[in-house]
């Protein structure tokens, strides 16, 4: 049996080596594609091309008895690596006559990411850090674009220092709240203004498929090239009114981060063994625990600023607390009928998204399970 098994394993190893060679060839071709896209100013992410390619590969896989989902998983992972590789070829500069791109707060992680992307696109980038304000007027004198990326609690103070920008300079910010900073920029600068919120962190390997929310302030036609430059980087743009964005963030950021904070706080007080929890975990609980735990591996000031950035956030969290109390009463009453009725009501609110999210989460959980190594 051992001889037979070893012979089969040797064949598998040989096939794996062929797969590695093919992956190397694919990445080499992708690098060439990146160079062509860079020359002609094409986005690194082409959703129609990706969808058509995946559909074709799934059909071909099914014909030869390979599970379609297997080839899709392999290709999606390969494409993620490809997008990261493509950006190394650089990007076409859409506004070579722009002047300097000045990133205020460019020494922070998000500022460094955007500085790198503008540099890869051929723009001259300057940075204003907390110790550079004495030279700020000289740095800003030739600015064609100023990007404010500082902590939320410093944003308005920093914007107030930008009253002497060149007339046609574009002023924008990357803050996770939009209405107040946008109004501050409109008040201090009479040129084009746009509020931006990157819905991703600075550790992303590529901007392909990442979302940037855009809130128009003034001079939309004058900053259209900037949005197109983002698109070349692979970004998906989401136009939205500032107040609508901020309301959505009460759910997407403030409420979610607070519930993770409260759950982590409760776990720390109950003090279970994390090692034992992981050994007992299904993929979904491990993923949930990871999403809570990752919060506490980051800067607490950032999350405090996000949660405390508006009274609307606090009122939303208070309403959640009230709803949580109502759910606790169902438990105190041992009222299964009320639990089922509430469950059905929420299920009805989700509608067809329930089944969609069930399918989507199943794929995520499969990937999470694949990454687990058990002794």
UniProtKB/TrEMBL annotation:
MF terms (GO), sorted A to Z: chorismate mutase activity; NAD+ binding; prephenate dehydrogenase (NAD+) activity; prephenate dehydrogenase (NADP+) activity
Query: Which catalytic reaction applies to this protein?
Result: chorismate = prephenate; prephenate + NAD(+) = 3-(4-hydroxyphenyl)pyruvate + CO2 + NADH
Subcellular locations according to the entry: Cytoplasm
Q: Name one GO cellular component term.
A: cytoplasm
Any Gene Ontology biological process: tyrosine biosynthetic process
Signal peptide positions on this chain:
none
Q: Does the keyword NAD apply?
A: yes
Which pathway does it take part in?
Metabolic intermediate biosynthesis; prephenate biosynthesis; prephenate from chorismate: step 1/1; Amino-acid biosynthesis; L-tyrosine biosynthesis; (4-hydroxyphenyl)pyruvate from prephenate (NAD(+) route): step 1/1
> What range(s) does the Prephenate/arogenate dehydrogenase domain occupy?
99-361
| Protein's UniProt name | T-protein
């Amino acid at each position: 049996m051992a001889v037979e098994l070893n012979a089969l394993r040797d064949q598998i190893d040989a096939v794996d080596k062929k797969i590695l060679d093919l992956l190397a060839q694919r990445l080499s071709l992708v690098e060439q594609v990146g160079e062509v896209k860079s020359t002609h100013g094409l986005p690194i992410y082409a959703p129609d091309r990706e969808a058509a390619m995946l559909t074709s590969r799934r059909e071909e896989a099914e014909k030869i008895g390979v599970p379609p989902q297997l080839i899709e998983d392999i290709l999606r992972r390969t494409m993620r690596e490809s997008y990261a590789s493509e950006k190394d070829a650089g990007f076409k500069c859409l506004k070579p006559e722009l002047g300097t791109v000045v990133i205020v707060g460019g020494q922070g992680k998000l500022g460094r990411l955007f500085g790198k992307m503008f540099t890869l696109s051929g723009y001259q980038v300057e940075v204003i850090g907390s110790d550079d304000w004495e030279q700020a007027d000289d740095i800003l004198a030739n600015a064609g674009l100023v990007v404010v990326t500082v902590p939320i609690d410093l944003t308005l103070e920093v914007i107030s220092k930008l009253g002497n920008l060149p007339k046609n300079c574009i002023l924008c910010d990357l803050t996770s709240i939009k209405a107040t900073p946008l109004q501050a920029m409109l008040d201090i600068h009479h040129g084009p203004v746009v509020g931006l919120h990157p819905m991703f962190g600075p550790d992303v390997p590529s901007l392909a498929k990442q979302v940037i929310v855009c809130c128009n302030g003034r001079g939309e036609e004058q900053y259209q090239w900037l949005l197109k430059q983002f698109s070349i980087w692979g970004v998906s743009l989401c136009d939205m009114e500032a107040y609508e964005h901020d309301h959505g963030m009460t759910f997407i950021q403030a409420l979610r981060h607070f519930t993770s904070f409260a759950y982590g706080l409760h776990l720390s007080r109950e003090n279970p063994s994390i090692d034992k929890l992981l050994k007992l975990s299904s993929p979904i609980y491990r993923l949930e625990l990871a999403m809570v735990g990752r919060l506490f591996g980051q800067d607490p000031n950032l999350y405090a600023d996000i949660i405390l950035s508006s009274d609307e956030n606090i009122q939303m969290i208070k309403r959640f607390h009230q709803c949580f109390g109502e759910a606790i009463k169902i438990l105190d009453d041992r009222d299964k009928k009320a639990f089922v009725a509430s469950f059905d009501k929420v299920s009805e609110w989700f509608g067809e998204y329930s089944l969609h999210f069930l399918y989507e989460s199943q794929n995520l959980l499969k990937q999470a399970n694949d990454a687990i190594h058990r002794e």
